[in-house]
Structures are given as C-alpha cells and as structure tokens.
Design brief:
Elements lengths: L2 H48 L7 H23 L6 H10 L2 H36 L9 H4 L2 H20 L9
Helix pairs in contact: 1-2, 1-6, 2-6, 3-4, 4-6
Length: about 180
C-alpha cells in the first residue's frame, strides 16, 4: 500500500469517525431535550389536574414526543451496536477471533438493515400521503399528516446510522465499536 492510499484511507476513517461522534452527540442531546420536555409536560398535566385545568394539546404532544424519542433512541442504539442483529453468529466469530468474517457479517447486517429501512421509509411516506388525503386536524391545528412525519424521519435517522456503521467497517482502524 503506497503512502497516498494510506493517507486517503486515514482521512476517510477520520471523516467517518467524526460524523459518528457528531451523530452520537446529536442523539444524546436530542434524547435529553425530549426527555426533559416529556417530563415537564407530564408533571404539568398532573399538577393541572389537581386544580381542574386541562390544556388539551399537552397529552397528544407527550404521546408524539415519546414516539419520536423511540426512533431517536433506536438510532443511538444502532450507533452503539446494541440494535437487534444476528448476535449469535457475531458472538461465535468474536470468540474465534476471526476479524475478517466478523467484518463481513457486520457489513451484511448493515446492508440488509439499510434495504429494510429504505422500504420502511417508503412505506412511511406512502402512509403520510394517505393520511394527508384522508386525515383530519390533529392537535394545535396541525393536520394529522404533519404528525405522522415522525415515522419517516425516524426511519431515516436509523438508516443514516446504519450507513455510518457500514462505512465504519471499511475504516482501517482496529478499534471499531461493535
């Protein structure tokens, strides 16, 4: 391997690692903001019930924020490598210390997951258009189709993370996260 190829691979690995770190920070801060908002709104709902006051949009808002939080949490789980995968096969090859097979399995899982998420994202977008045509007004005057945009957004986030995980398998660094 010549010096220019080695430098190019190192730059690519650095770029992927920087992107992965940036996305991890984004997920953590977004999850923290969502959690704080959910907690604040939930406590407010309970406190206002004591004085017989109801803010009608708070409960649907909390439900949608929890839904969004599940998708962002799924993207963070994918980044950390604790998503649902073929763990039995991966664990076997980790114990045999066969790095090449393990990398191929990670690539295969990432590629299959990317294809599945593209299909899920397409279905979610189709659902958005059906909801746009037949849905009604949600909370705060928003159309219900606007609220279901959480679904394709969530699948897109998880899909982006699987693309990053796939790119990480091509990085020359030996200390890749599982």
């Amino acid at each position: 391997m010549n010096l220019s190829t080695q430098s190019k691979e190192h730059t690519q690995a650095t770029w992927v690692q920087v992107l992965d770190t940036y996305m991890g920070n984004f997920y953590r801060w977004f999850l923290m903001a969502l959690m704080m908002t959910i907690m604040f709104c939930s406590v407010l709902i309970i406190a206002l019930r004591w004085v017989d006051v109801h803010i009608t949009f708070l409960e649907p808002l909390v439900r949608h924020l929890v839904f969004l939080m599940a998708f962002v949490g799924g993207a963070e789980a994918t980044r950390k490598g604790v998503h649902i995968g073929i763990d039995v096969v991966s664990k076997y090859f980790e114990s045999t210390r066969n790095e090449q097979i393990l990398i191929l399995i990670k690539r295969y899982i990432s590629m299959i997951s990317i294809v599945a998420l593209i299909l899920l994202c397409k279905s979610a977008i189709d659902f958005y258009f059906v909801e746009k045509e037949f849905g009604g007004e949600g909370f705060l005057g928003l159309h219900s189709s606007t609220l279901v945009l959480i679904i394709p957004f969530g699948f897109f986030l998880i899909g982006i993370q699987f693309v990053i995980e796939l790119l990480k398998t091509f990085s020359p660094s030996k200390n890749q996260r599982s």
